[in-house]
Design goal:
Largest sheet: 2 strands, antiparallel
Structural class: alpha+beta
Number of strands: 6
Order of helices and strands: HHHEEEEHEEHHHH
Shape: flat
Number of helices: 8
Radius of gyration: 19 Å
Length: 191
């Protein structure tokens, strides 16, 4: 992730504490939402929204411009669609429809469709994270992106990419409670 915005850097502190900085953060969230809405309007679900898949262009020269609340101008673009799925094709897969005896190809993923391997664990919604193989919510694949945007927003607000990290104490308590579970289930719980 970009350490400039997603870790407590001097720039992040400046945005959080200076007049207009809150407007820049709100503007970034608005642009993420608008970009994702465009993806959804095109009939796709991104499935891998995260800071490293967002391109940010900052113009620090316009900080005194009244139109942006006194903060730097920030333009954000959504990128890296390598995990995206076509929502119509995904719904056909859910319905079990077939084309010529073959399951519909979900774009880049071959005959069997996408898997969790193409996704980033920290940004997976719970229905995917805690399912052994589900790559997205079959009834609403675009909901995946909504969860990811929420995680990104938490990262922006908190200034850390580790919003779900467990302390060592909590991890030990959880390990004790899960000692009878499989290793795979324990690892999912530790996320």
């Amino acid at each position: 992730s970009d350490p400039l915005l997603f870790e407590p850097s001097a720039f992040w502190r400046h945005l959080r504490l200076s007049p207009g900085g809150d407007q820049v953060l709100k503007g970034l969230l608005r642009q993420i939402l608008e970009g994702t809405a465009e993806v959804h309007a095109a009939g796709a679900a991104h499935r891998d929204l995260k800071p490293s898949n967002l391109i940010l262009n900052l113009n620090l020269k316009n900080q005194n411009d009244e139109g942006n609340g006194g903060g730097p101008e920030a333009v954000l673009k959504v990128s890296d669609f390598s995990s995206a799925v076509d929502v119509d094709v995904a719904s056909q897969a859910e319905d079990g429809r077939e084309d010529g005896g073959q399951r519909q190809n979900l774009n880049l993923y071959g005959r069997e469709g996408p898997t969790q391997r193409e996704e980033t664990t920290e940004y997976m919604p719970p229905e995917v994270l805690f399912h052994p193989s589900l790559p997205f919510a079959l009834g609403d694949p675009q909901s995946y992106d909504s969860w990811s945007i929420g995680v990104i927003f938490l990262e922006l607000i908190l200034g850390t990419p580790h919003v779900f990290t467990l302390s060592s104490r909590d991890r030990n308590i959880l390990a004790h409670q899960l000692k009878r579970e499989t290793e795979e289930d324990r690892q999912r719980a530790y996320l």
